[in-house]
Amino acid sequence: MAAILRHVIRASAQRSFPVRLLNSNEVKNQSNAPNVSTKEAPASDAQILNLSDSCKKRLEEICTDGSFLRLTVEGGGCSGFQYKFDLDNKLNEDDLSFGTDKAKVVVDNISIEYCNGATVDFHTELIRSGFRIVGNPKAEQGCSCGASFAIRLD
Questions:
Q1: What's the whole-model pTM score?
Q2: Exposure check for the chain: N or C terminus, fewer CB within 10 A?
Q3: Looking at the domain covering 2-13+46-151, what would its CATH class be?
Q4: For 102-145, how does the pLDDT look when each residue is reduced to its tens digit (9 = 90+)?
């Protein structure tokens, strides 16, 4: 399932669609375009993944041999997509790195599209502890355990 999802997303990500923003005069002259937005496009398409202090602290404790935390988004879970965390030590050519050498999180370029702007956190409870994603602006809803989510379709 995840392999099929990645193939479909890669194929659609390689397509480029020309977009032109209309200025306010052009919008006024468009008689058949009542729902045209004139807001400016974001200045940057930067990929951002934040690391909480507890995440950095835990990674510094467990990644002493040059390893890092790999975050992957896969199809599945009770809400459609799920986060997968693994310790890894091999970078791929499509990987993006966040953090420092002592506390690094790596995400492939497909998965970042589903968690761009989110925060990786390390959470400790009485019965378990682990990494989790909080504040994902791309997620509309999630399951109660926080491991899976549905994509926001804005």
A1: 0.68
A2: C
A3: mainly beta
A4: 999 999 999 999 999 999 999 999 999 999 999 999 998 776 66
